[in-house]
Structures are given as C-alpha cells and as structure tokens.
Amino acid sequence: MQISSDEEDTVCPDKVTVASALSACAALGAIDQGKWVHSYLERSGMECDMVIRTALVDMYGKCGCVERAYQVFKEMPNKDVLAWTAMISVLALHGNGNEAFELFKEMEAVGVRPNAVTFVGLLSACAHSGLVEKGRWCFDMMRHVHCIEPQVQHYACMIDILGRAGLFNEAEELIRTMPMKPDVFVWGALLGACQLHGNVKLGEKVARYLIDLEPDNHAFYIILCDLYAKSGRFDDQKRVRSLMKDQDIRKSVPGSSMIEVDGVVHEFSVKGSPEMLMEALQSVLLLLSNEMKIERNIGSVIR
What is the distance between the alpha carbons of residues 153 and 30, in angstroms, rounded to a whole number? Predict the structure, then answer.
C-alpha cells in the first residue's frame, strides 16, 4: 500500500497509515510530502482524529513550519494532553521557550493536566532558550504541584539547562543527588556543556564515564579530541586519536545529509555516489538561480 499522487491506482489508506506517513515525513524533514499528505486528508474527506491532527503538528514542527503547526493546533477541537504537549515540544525545538510556557499556562487554564512528557518539552524549551530560573521552577513544580516524580529524561534536561549556563557545580551536585543512576543522556548533556564552555578538566572526567558506558561510541572520543585541540593539548588529542585507531573505533554508519528538491528528498554521504551528489547540487543551484532571476526581475519592475 502506498500514498501517491496516482490516487486512482492505490488502495485508500486508513488513519494508521496516514499517521505513519506523517511521522516518516517528520523524521526525514520532507515538508513537501508532508503537505501533500495534509492535502490528501482534506481532499479525501477522511475524518481527522486527535492522533492525525497531533501528527500534523509534529510533522510541521519538525520540518520547521512553526506557524503552520500552530495553525493546525489552534483548529483542533477538544485538545488532549498529547496535542498540547506536541505543540509545546515544537516551540521548544525552535528555541521559543517563553511561548512554550505561555502555552502551558493556557493548557492549565482549560483544565488539561500535564504529564511527564509535557515537562520534558518544557525543560527542553528552557535549555534551548537559556531560561535557567524557569527551568528550576518547572523541575520543582512537576514534583510538588503535579506530583510527577522526575525521571532520567527530566534530569538530563535539567543538566543541559545548567550546563549550557556554565553552572557546572550545580549540575554535578544534581547528578550526585539523582535517585537513579545517571545514564548516557545525562552524562552526554554535561559533556556537551563542557565542550561549549571549554571545560577540559570536567570534560575529561565525564568522557571517561561515557566511554565506560558505551566504549564503542565514537562521538565521545571526538568531543574529547575537540576539547584537547581547543585548549592546545595536541599531544593528548593525538593520544586519543591513536586509541581510536588501535581499537578500531569509528562511525558504524557514514554521516549523511539530506536535501529536498522539487518534492524529492535526496540523501548523500561522503562515501556516496559523486554522480548523485553532483546531480542533487546542480538541481539546487538551478533552483536558486531561477529564484534569483525572479527576484531581480521583480526589483526591476518596482524601480
């Protein structure tokens, strides 16, 4: 079964298929295909339940169309906690922390109770927007007002908030007092903060914890190398590089990039086909060239 523009030749998809297609578009950042699925829903007259509407919000948000996501959200009747959480997460993703909190206040005002995932979204919004005090308030409120015990994801977000602000002593103290064992996401948030602020001493310690947890994860070695390089410790950087080589630690999957041209998502990597790469780049350059000509012509007419 597939959803395509040749609707006459395909089996009509059900709601589960449509929701899955929207999730795939969100994961790929395929906005043109996502818009097409939305258009298909409107043309087909399929009833859009809360699951599909929430998937639309998520898709538009992850594809960078925050206003479109908000439009879909506002048109939802009887929004449930999943819908509110999805929109809060979209705002968090794009660094709109204050807007996320305003939406949270609206949610509480209409009597919808937040869940644990809602607070992950709010804390993430604080991290991406540098809202340290609101992050502390949110972390405290979820326990004492909503009786939701923080899980490891909430602690990871809180460490991210404190670490980005350079509050390393407070971040370390929070890790020490966690009621559960810190996982790779908690330590990873702290390591990312060490890289951001150039805290080599703490970064070394955190990297060792992470390498013990996931000894084959190349990312931790790379960040440690970056810390050494930025602090001028090139011998230590060389030592870590040699260790990676001796233990054959490298990316299991080559890094790749994706671009969307004329509604088609192209993926290419360093080891990919040069012909495919050039074809994709030429398409983008042609598209940009045409757009520039149009803008230039419009400017000439205005003048």
Answer: 28
